[in-house]
Amino acid sequence: MTGNGAPASISPAEALSRLDLLGLDELLDSDDRLLRDSIRKFADDQLRPNIAEWFEAGTLPARDLALEFGKLGMLGMHLDGYGCPGAKPSQYALACIEVEAVDSGLRSLVSVQGSLAMYSIYAYGSEEQKQHWLPRMATGEAIGCFGLTESDAGSDPGSMRTRARRDGNGENADWILHGSKMWITNGSIADVAVVWARTEEGISGFLVERGTPGFTATDVHHKISLRASITSELSFDEVRLPASAQLPLARGLRAPLGALTEARFGIVNGAVGAARDALASTLAYASSRVQFGKPISSFQLTQRKLAELAVTVQNMQLVARRLSELKDAHRIEPHQISYGKFNNVRAALEVCREARSILGGSGITTEYPVLRHAVNLETVYTYEGTHEVHTLVLGEKLTGISAYR
């Protein structure tokens, strides 16, 4: 209490502690807590002081950050061998929470690198491809991107128009790749693009290196959301690839969808970080913002909002923790990932929108992270499976009827 009997202002760290109403932090073992705290410190020291400027400028020092993330062991964190840490999925979840607590664009950099590009090579690549790319990608020396979405093939990737054909006979014949991909994170800075294309044998994956003749990447500008993230269009104009560029184990649409399942796990947890950060900053603000002679945190309507938002965030954390347990046990199923994305991203958006109302006019500036998180989450709500698609995944699981095929 202060000298006049009013409650003292709450620091951001204290606000974060108060939000753990169920004591979930106690469930972390010493290794998990050390990992979480080291990433949180890096985020607070190196990322948080710069993120508003990066967001406003619509830029990101992605190559420098990739090297820093590599030093922390966050790239391909849950993969084994090839220079990857082999961490538990639940530990990767903690990393995603702390990074997205700063900005969704930063978590996108980490998850596209590790859970989409690296995972595709790890799961579907040849031994030579793994040895060539994964160690350098784990350190951040090499950056990857994942080319699946097209302008006319978003929720229905099976309708993709990008094609690859053999130039000659036999398994050693070159491939000719033609088409384009849209909304590709890391696209213009990637050293290697994992590209999915239609072939006579079905959907196949290819590794396309930067500088390959006919391959160009153009950044998407004028974004309102995910401004601290590099988003590109990839174009392939009769790109010639050697037979060794094909991912040998990637056959059919199940391959890219398998990688997306990996990445969505990061989204489920990252959304927790965004919502938690928005609410923690709002709680700290409400304790220091004085109206009618007292902090607005003392008003009943504000306390009701804070209580409801805190319960929502804790419920998100419970969903994420349960899915982490299932993934650690190698028992997680795609519909459960859809459950997590359906619930957590929607809830995170609701938290940010209501939290912004507590901040009043201050909430529309980049001085506070709440509205930045909200506009970022509008993209997260859509990418890697729209909210509507995940709704139908759950509907199919419940009814046994596929509504979108």
UniProtKB/TrEMBL annotation:
PANTHER family linked to this entry: GLUTARYL-COA DEHYDROGENASE, MITOCHONDRIAL
Name of the protein described by the UniProt record: glutaryl-CoA dehydrogenase (ETF)
Keywords, ordered alphabetically: FAD, Flavoprotein, Oxidoreductase, Transit peptide
Limits of the Acyl-CoA dehydrogenase/oxidase C-terminal domain: 251-398
UniProt pathway: Amino-acid metabolism; lysine degradation; Amino-acid metabolism; tryptophan metabolism
Species per Swiss-Prot/TrEMBL record: Jatrophihabitans telluris
Cofactor(s) needed for function: FAD
This enzyme's EC code(s): 1.3.8.6
N-terminal signal peptide: none
Catalyzed reaction equations: glutaryl-CoA + oxidized [electron-transfer flavoprotein] + 2 H(+) = (2E)-butenoyl-CoA + reduced [electron-transfer flavoprotein] + CO2
InterPro entries the UniProt entry points to: Acyl-CoA_DH_CS, Acyl-CoA_Oxase/DH_mid-dom, Acyl-CoA_Oxase/DH_mid-dom_sf, AcylCo_DH-like_C, AcylCo_DH/oxidase_C, AcylCoA_DH/ox_N, AcylCoA_DH/ox_N_sf, AcylCoA_DH/oxidase_NM_dom_sf
Family, per entry: Belongs to the acyl-CoA dehydrogenase family.
Record-annotated Acyl-CoA oxidase/dehydrogenase middle domain positions: 145-239
Keyword Ion transport: no
Domain Acyl-CoA dehydrogenase/oxidase N-terminal: residue ranges: 31-141
